[in-house]
Design goal:
Blueprint lengths: L2 E5 L8 H10 L4 E7 L9 H14 L4 E6 L3 H9 L5 E5 L6 H13 L3 E6 L17 E5 L14 H14 L5 E5 L7 H7 L3 E4 L1 H4 L4 H9 L2
Parallel strand pairs: 1-2, 1-8, 2-3, 3-4, 4-5, 5-6, 6-7, 7-8
Amino acid sequence: MVEISASILTIEKENSIKKFYELETAKTDYFHIDVMDGKFVPKNTTAQMIEYSEYLKQISSIPLDVHLMVEDVKTWTLAFLGVSPNIITFHVEALKNEEAVMEVIKFIKDSGIKVGISVKPNTPIEEIYKYLPYIHMVLVMTVEPGLGGQSLIPEMLEKVKKLKQHITKNNLEIDIEVDGGIKVSNIKDAVDAGIDIAVVGTGLTSSENMAETMKQLKSN
């Protein structure tokens, strides 16, 4: 069964307590924390995501799935260590070379946190193959990072299939997560492509009955 990481990016502060409770009772597997610095992507969500993460850590035992869409990966990793996330995922495009990527992987793992690498739609999936033995998850962006509510780019599921084949062929233990435009009507295509975890934002948080929507998402 596919796991669901509920993106809280578009949840407004005045409704946040109610929405977080509804997501928990709907049995989300993770809270997906979209950290944007206003540089790597235009929007800046850092203050909001720190506030939400600190609050969720107080009221919920559901793991935090932190997605860093930032230029300064180390600084923002440090900023989120206090909420003890299950995993911190950073963008390979944010770092200049292989040495810098490996340094960040080690830094996150040495902090006792699982590590993921994310790739934008235009980044060939082969670029991260060399890092797979050292990480826990690959996050394939199925939209351009930075905005909620976008439509899934179908070609990205071919990237997922290629990655899944490589993982299977090389007997690697690694999860594949997708993020962007996932909803009830298309999650089966993503599952069939080989994903383990789906980030779902407005396709879940804007639904009238989150528990029912979650059930439908997980039925694939």
